[in-house]
Amino acid sequence: MRITVLGLGIIGGVWAAHLAKDGHEVRTWNRTFKPQAPGATADLVAAVTGAELVAIVVADPPAVAEVLARIAPVLAPGMVVAQHSTVGVEDTRSYAALVAGRGAAFLDMPFTGSKPAAEQRQNVFFVGGDPAVLATVAPVYARLAKAVLPIGAIGQAMAIKLAFNLLIANLNQAQCEALTLATRAGIPPETFFAAFDLNVGRSPLVDLKKPKYLTGDYSPQFSVKHMHKDLRLALAFAGSLGLRLDQTAAVERAYGEAAAQGRSEQDFAALLEVVRAAKA
């Protein structure tokens, strides 16, 4: 299949390499040109022209909107645009309308799993949109994923992704607070985690982030800035539904503090440093 990957950050670059290994004709584009990527070009329109599948993996809603506006003239019937970036639900519906207006098909297709999952082909994709459209690209994604889960209409896949990122952000905050409380009481971190492994509150997030908590290596698997952005999106969506999420609002402020401390590009496990530094 002729596949274009737009955005070669932590995830997009890994997917592009996998797709090339899988035998697809891959073209790639990134805002900052990355010549080592498969089929790399600095020309966004050229990257998309003639593609059968366009996978968008850029940073945030403004970046998605800009990319779609620039490629809209070359979108055409027979193309599938799969939008993987975490954005707002209403953003997603507006992108779908733009793509449909050009005769192409659109899939609302956020995912879970950070860099290690991408490297191991273990991401999970949530899909909103026409099942018939998904069927045309499902074999491609089956090779990248642990699961490809149809969720419902366009916008609903993004809604569930925001719900899950909200949950993960809250879990990380709770883990950081629990670890800080225990260690401040003189309990070694290794003892804390040995006990935590036997506790009902344990989650796979502990296994993923424990090395970072223990070593202070906050090289990003998923950055503070992206988690903070997703929390703001989740809170805005909740507000549009008449919901008030008090705990998540407090967690969003904590990630904002991490960003203000210069930790935006670090892994979101760096929230531990914010918790450690907080004073009563």
Biggest pleated sheet: 5 strands, parallel
Indicate the low-confidence ranges by residue numbers: none
Instruction: Give the tally of β-strands.
Output: 8
Q: What is the CATH first-level class name of the largest domain?
A: Alpha Beta
Order of helices and strands: EHEHEHEHEEHEHEHHHHHH
Total number of distinct structural domains: 2
Any idea of the CATH topology of the largest domain?
Rossmann fold
Determine the oligomeric state from the structure.
single chain
Order of strands, widest sheet: 2-1-3-4-5
Sequence-ordered SSE layout with sheet pairings:
Elements: E1 2-6, H1 12-21, E2 25-29, H2 44-48, E3 53-56, H3 61-71, E4 80-83, H4 89-101, E5 105-108, E6 111-112, H5 115-119, E7 123-128, H6 131-142, E8 145-152, H7 156-184, H8 189-196, H9 204-215, H10 224-240, H11 246-263, H12 271-277
Q: What this model shows, in words?
A:
This protein is of the alpha/beta class. It has two domains: 151 residues, NAD(P)-binding Rossmann-like Domain (Rossmann fold, 3-Layer(aba) Sandwich), CATH 3.40.50.720; 119 residues, N-(1-d-carboxylethyl)-l-norvaline Dehydrogenase, domain 2 (Orthogonal Bundle), CATH 1.10.1040.10. 52% of the residues lie in helices and 14% in strands. The strands form two sheets. The protein has a five-stranded parallel sheet with strand order 2-1-3-4-5, sandwiched between helices. Helix 7 crosses helix 11, helix 10 packs antiparallel against helix 11 and helix 11 crosses helix 12. The longest helix has 29 residues.
